[in-house]
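Study this protein:
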Amino acid sequence: MKTAPKACTGNLFEADKLATVKFVKGAAMAGDPICAVDLFCGAGGLSEGFRQAGFTIAAGSDNDPDAMATYAANFPEARAITGDIRSAAVKEQILDAARRATVLVGGPPCQAFSQVRNHTRMIDDPRNALYREFVDVLKEVLPPAFVVENVTGMDQMGVREQIAADLSLDGEYAVLPQIVDAADFGVPQTRKRLLFIGVHTSTGMTPPKLIGSDATQAVTLARFTGARRPRYQVVIQQHIRSLQAGQALDDPQNLSIVSAADAISDLINLPVGNRNDALPYSELLPPSSAYQRMMREGAGAMLSNVQVPRLNPDTRLRLLGIPPGGNYRDLQDELQERYITGHRWGQDNGTGKLSRKHFYAYRRLHPGVWAWTLNTKADSVYHYGVERALSVREFARLQSFPDRFVFTTDPRSGMIDGRHDGGPAHSRYRQAGNAVPPLLAKAVAVSVFEQVRAFRARELQSAKAG
């Protein structure tokens, strides 16, 4: 029988009226949990990774009620705070939870990246109000450490330095920015993220630098043209570390580098158009890789989020004409007609030809390498072995969410506050596609956890000696 996780009773610091910070002797007793609070948490990718690394998740906060329904279902031990952080009532709930955090984490949206060009600081731009709220919470609660993640679009000249300076709070924190790719940390998807890891200078900790496999530098997917149609092949760079990465990618029992087939081949027979969103594992193929076995751990007898949307007949014909790893540019001329079978669907652009003429149109996974970066839509990528879209569960697998993690929505109908348009099915794809991959989050969390645990040991020893 599982025991309930210990509650988070307070972080390791207290601030006096002069805003100086001092260690609270005895606050971090042996066995006390190391707690994380997740702002702008979405469905909970960061929280899941931190939980896997040993953190107790104290709370998560987001404005999206559907994402928070998923969060609450998967983190029953945590406080799920739904609402706009700019609301005074919501902000107070967040601060109350964050005061108990050892580590504050989150991915605050930043809608404007070009401020350095017009000499306006990012934090002062009204479009970045949510980012400013994260900095305000950090300033108020002063946890021993924090982690901020965001898209690499923020990594423009001067912007990275601005963010690091904002988060340093005038020297309170040592901050290390770094760009990482999820595929270098065992996630079957390339997904670059800009991380800011900060530690309070009074702790003696050092912001850790993440070291991955560098597989994304060693492996490429090359397009070869032949007599019949193009084909795509995994190509390994010719040096020792790259060859080792290639061997790891080819080995389905190696968890360090994971291909799309390693991630989802056991789900290839999911029925298209099935209304039932859960199936027993007994109706699926057995796991064929270490990754699939890991994903199934703790999931029970049933697998959720397995609905596969029906395909338009034209789309199916196009997928038949695209090899694994390919996209729109592999379509022959007759498959670029706007309506192939006469079935009229979507918006007619008046040209008689498809309007989706870009890399992201009609993409098919390649079984031998990780997936492209997923987005929020079911048609952002198609299966490598069968002519169909992916289920939410397959999105989740490619993001490294374990099968026990269930995506759901708020049961209330209509456009309630914070809800995105599109309906429950689209919301589940959006939640999965927008998330931080938990295995990437876990790599971050493990490095921070070790630093915090060592800091606690030093402080406890000092408390005993004093």
Remarks:
- The chain has two domains: 13-210+439-465, 255-433.
